[in-house]
Amino acid sequence: MISQKIYLRYNRSMKFRNHMFYFACILLATISLLSCDTTEETFNIESTVVASINEAFDNIPTPTPIILATYTPLPTYTPFPTYTPTIIPTITPTYTPLPTYTPLPTYTPLPTYTPFPSPTPTPIVKVSTMLDKIKNSVVKIQTNSKKGSGVVIRENGIVITNYHVIAGGNFITVTFHNGSTKSGTLIASDISRDIAIISLFGEGYEHLALGESQIPEIGDSVYALGYPLRGNYTVTAGIMSSTVTLSKGPYKYIQTDASLNPGNSGGPLVDEYGNLVGINTSRMETSEGRPVQGVGYALLVKEQEDYINGLIK
Description:
Layout: H1 2-34, H2 40-59, H3 127-134, E1 138-142, E2 147-152, E3 158-161, H4 163-166, E4 173-175, E5 181-183, E6 185-190, E7 195-199, E8 221-226, E9 234-245, E10 252-256, E11 268-271, E12 276-285, E13 291-300, H5 301-312
Antiparallel strand pairs: 1-2, 1-4, 2-3, 3-7, 4-5, 6-7, 8-9, 8-11, 9-10, 10-13, 11-12, 12-13
């Protein structure tokens, strides 16, 4: 780039010198045309002009020679080393077998949800309501010499009572809670168990079924129903104290503290649900014949159920 600029400056100086020479020649030619007379004065002028031109040419500075930049040869081309490819070793992949397929376990459906049945609440029955419901099953029994109580156990008018209530009587009269009366007929009895079966004949009697009788547990509430003393319908309450056997035989009796008075014999002993559990039989007395308070006995009906049904047939 620098050598090119120096060359351009030299070339311009040479052109300027040539122009001045041409200008001097034209000027001399013009003067010759204007004056054809060749006088000494004219000659002197021309000499002066020529001398001036020569002086001007002499005064033109000689251009300084331009030294071009020394050529520096390009460095010797060094070829790139021959490319030697790297040999990549062949990798043989190791075959890893797929894991053995384990089938999913067979789906076992969940069992159908069975909701628990809602507990049916046991209705609470008032004792007074229960006693009022069964009062028409309790009857008064009279003979020509004795009186006591009894209970209807079948709808066809079968009544059970104590044997000692009807023993020696010529007739049997059965009176209901509403005051109506029926004549009864003795159809069976057992002196050892102190029971007697009376038939009233007819249908549709309110009754306490033997099949619903239960064995109460000690401490359960019990109620003695009947027509004691003056013959009015009464209810006395107590609990089951225990089960005992008496001197009359190997039969089980319920001991209770429910008050049993003369006239209660043969009447029913029921639990708090109105189920027949015993036939009131006797009370404990001293050797002088005085009653012991709070100790009465009723034949356990559940154990005598089959025997009583056999007597009725």
